[in-house]
Design brief:
single chain, mainly alpha, 2 domains, 6 helices, 79% helix
Length: 187
């Protein structure tokens, strides 16, 4: 079960506390390096799983959990140290909380298995969230490297696409539920 791709994912998860501590103590260069390391291991674990034919059920669950742990914790910490606006933190966190609640409701209400698959807008949302993290970290490490408008534009784009993807996932969930649970009004 603990093959190379899963090991890389596990290492990525284990680096998150070091990343957060680096941010908390204003060690932005270390935080940026850990973030880059996480991005590289994220790329390598997927590549290794496909190339070595070591795709596992554990890896299919562990990889998105690692991604969400990094995004959640990073956004909360960057919001806390005021590197990104708190309203963006709320949008990113609330979108995923609503999606998780939606999946839980479907899981407990419907006997049929719901296959969750990422959508194009969901992937765009994740990409923008990660780019915003990278640019926010870069602006903490070297503020003169980026004009403030770049980060502000990324923040606005991330907020917009994150909200749209959340609405899209909720819509898909409601459609799926509607097709499976016929409504019968009580008399």
């Amino acid at each position: 079960m603990l093959n190379l791709p899963n090991f890389l994912t596990l290492i990525r998860i284990l680096t998150i506390p070091f990343f957060l501590v680096s941010l908390a103590y204003h060690r932005y260069s270390v935080a940026l390096l850990i973030f880059i390391f996480g991005a590289v291991t994220d790329f390598l674990d997927g590549l290794a799983a496909r190339w070595m034919h070591q795709e596992t059920r554990l890896g299919a669950y562990l990889d998105p959990v690692a991604d969400k742990l990094l995004v959640f914790s990073s956004y909360v910490m960057l919001g806390f140290i005021e590197a990104i606006p708190l309203w963006l933190v709320m949008i990113v966190v609330m979108r995923d909380v609503l999606i998780i609640i939606g999946f839980a409701v479907i899981y407990y209400l419907v006997d049929e298995k719901f296959e969750a698959s990422p959508t194009v807008i969901g992937k765009c949302s994740t990409l923008l969230q990660l780019l915003t993290l990278a640019f926010a970290l870069t602006s903490l490490y070297a503020p003169s490297w980026l004009p403030p408008l770049v980060l502000k534009t990324l923040v606005a784009a991330t907020a917009t696409v994150t909200m749209l993807s959340g609405i899209h996932y909720l819509y898909r969930g409601f459609l799926w539920l509607q097709r499976r649970t016929p409504f019968s009004p009580s008399n």
